[in-house]
Amino acid sequence: KTEDGTVHGASLLKESVVLKLNGGLGTGMGLDFAKSLLKVKGNDTFLDLTAKQVISMRKAYKQNVRFALMNSFSTSDDTMAFLQKYPDIVSDPDLEFVQNKVPKLDKTTYMPGDYPANPKCEWCPPGHGDLYAALEGSGTLDKLLEQGVKYMFVSNSDNLGATMDLDLLSYFAKQDYSFMMECAERTNNDKKGGHLAVRTKDNQLILRESAQCPDEDEDQFQDISKHRFFNTNNLWIRLDRLKEEIVKNGGFIPLPMIQNGKTIDPKNDDSLKVLQLETAMGAAIECFSKAGAVCVPRTRFAPVKKCNDLLLLRSDAYVVTPDSRLVMNPVMEAAPKMGLDSKKYKFVQALEAATELGTPSLVDCTALKVDGLVYFTRKNIFVGKVTITNSSSEPKVLPPGTYTNCTINLDAAPGLGAVCPKKMPTTPIEGQKPGTSGLRKKTAVFMEPNYLANFVQSTFSTIKTMGADIETKTLVVGGDGRYFNPEAIQIIVKMAVANGVNRIWIGKDGILSTPAVSAIIRERGPSYMSPFGAFILTASHNPGGPNEDFGIKYNVENGGPAPEKVTNGIFENTKTIQEYLICPDFPDINLGLAGTTKVESTCGSKVVVVEVIDGVEDHIDLLKTVFDFDAIKGLLDRPDFSWCT
């Protein structure tokens, strides 16, 4: 910080642009949508907080601070649709440009990988080093230069600590750097990340990534006393000089190529082994003779690469500032070292299930290690160094309480019992594309193994990624009473509980018409119980029976049929599904008896409520607000009234 840094920096904003890298799907965490759309604090996603940061800065400095996104072919549509809630942001015609894509290479043949089960998995973005080629190729770089933009601040969309800092902007300009990297001091939590180094032969600053490190040098690479500074991926770039380098090098920035070994389907460890050829944008530091680095506090680095990071940010160890930055709680000296079981918590879905009852307190924790599958509650408080183990085959809920410098073994603890979810293996089944009236097939097809389960799980997977509040709101289930209706309802209920639904309303005898379902979704209360959606088992006017038709459709929270975005998502999931969740020990519900059934976990931590309701009451109440039935009856009873045919 300098005496005039903020004032000087503010004067440079008209020549500056904030760019967020938003091309990642977070596939390594089991996501198939933009990682920036993942909820990180309450109901706010990374993208929510980023938009709020930009809006806050524009208000504070009374000028239109430029903001842009580098999206990918996988994130552009979802991102732009999501940002419609921020009209001041999305109205900018220059808001996004899209990076390139390259094929994943078969690790054995070096030919493009083939994956018919999901062709989208055959492609990937070529790393964030593609920034420079995408800026140039899209025409964005030339457009910014024409607008008089000189300074670009770049950071990852999952790093909410990285904002346009006016002191840093001022420093970058005063040093007359062409390129500046923000670095932070390495800790054990970031010893595997890329570090800053000086090339011996010419004293040039360079970036060294773990993927470029030989196995025999791994220990030296991770030595935080030797390599003290890591790259936060917060970069400052002089755009005019970037253009000069691109022209000088024949249209590109020469960056070291990185080979990342992956599976072609990130969710399937048994799929084809591939190489993803990538470059790192920070590596461009070696391309500029007038490059520099600046050491910044950890408040400017809060990314999410694994579930360890996400749990930490969602906990009280991090807080949101008034200008929507996510920073470490000021009462803490350092963030706790996180060690969630890498196999059990590899994917976000596992963490969501583990924190369904709340996120534990980590503000006084120095280290948390979890071996096995453990479920937390908001009443878990960790102090000091805590280790929790569970070697049993089912998840165990940690009882409420404060745990201080201790090791807890949950092997003998009671489990979830009837509400314990189990993963059942399956394979995709062709032809499960729902239309405007849902999915319709012969009843015998729906009764085939996994046919109904695949579609139901694909629906839950889709609506969860789109933000449906399935944990606190209600699922409605019913149908038109055709053959296989009762059995299908029991399957849906067991799968709903396994996917995190805690309250279900079912029509008596399993019967609910489509209009009745819409009325229940829109009218039945109280509001905190309002439904997030419904499964309706109907094939409309088609005949029913063991040799006739059956159908299923999903209606959303406004009572109407699922829009195309949802049905497309369901269909895509049916083409790649590998497993479904079900609670096989959850009791069958007596559909013929109106009333409430409560099923509690053995450990007492979870209660699921299933209510069998009158199938017409809510619909009739709604119709009474639309029609005056007494007046209609009076009209029909009049002796001078007759029907004209």
Strand fraction band? 25-35%
Please state the CA-atom Rg, rounded to the nearest Å.
28 Å
**Helix count?**
18
State the distance separating the first and last CA atoms: 87 Å
Q: Could you report the average pLDDT, rounded to the nearest whole number?
A: 91
Which class do the helix and strand fractions yield?
Answer: alpha/beta
Shape: globular
Give the strand order, joined by hyphens, for the main sheet.
Answer: 5-4-1-9-13-10-16
Low-pLDDT stretches are none
Give the number of DSSP strands.
Answer: 33
Q: Largest sheet, described in full?
A: 7 strands, mixed
Walkthrough of the structure:
- The chain is an alpha/beta fold and 645 residues long.
- It is 25% helix and 27% strand.
- The chain is built from 18 helices and 33 strands.
- The chain has a seven-stranded mixed beta sheet with strand order 5-4-1-9-13-10-16, with helices on both faces.
- Strand 19 (337-340), helix 11 (348-354) and strand 20 (361-371) form a beta-alpha-beta unit.
- Helix 13 (451-465) packs across helix 14.
- The mean pLDDT is 91.
Distinctive features:
single chain, alpha/beta, seven-stranded mixed sheet, 18 helices
SSE map:
Layout: H1 5-11, E1 16-22, E2 39-41, E3 44-45, H2 46-61, E4 66-71, H3 76-82, H4 87-90, E5 96-98, E6 102-103, E7 105-106, E8 123-124, H5 131-137, H6 140-146, E9 151-156, H7 166-175, E10 179-185, E11 195-199, E12 204-208, H8 218-221, E13 229-238, H9 239-248, E14 258-263, E15 273-278, E16 291-295, H10 307-314, E17 318-320, E18 326-328, E19 337-340, H11 348-354, E20 361-371, E21 374-375, E22 380-389, E23 396-397, E24 401-409, E25 422-425, E26 439-442, H12 443-446, H13 451-465, E27 474-479, H14 485-498, E28 503-511, H15 514-523, E29 531-537, E30 549-556, H16 564-574, E31 579-582, E32 595-600, E33 607-613, H17 617-626, H18 629-637
Helix pairs in contact: 1-7, 13-14, 13-16, 15-17
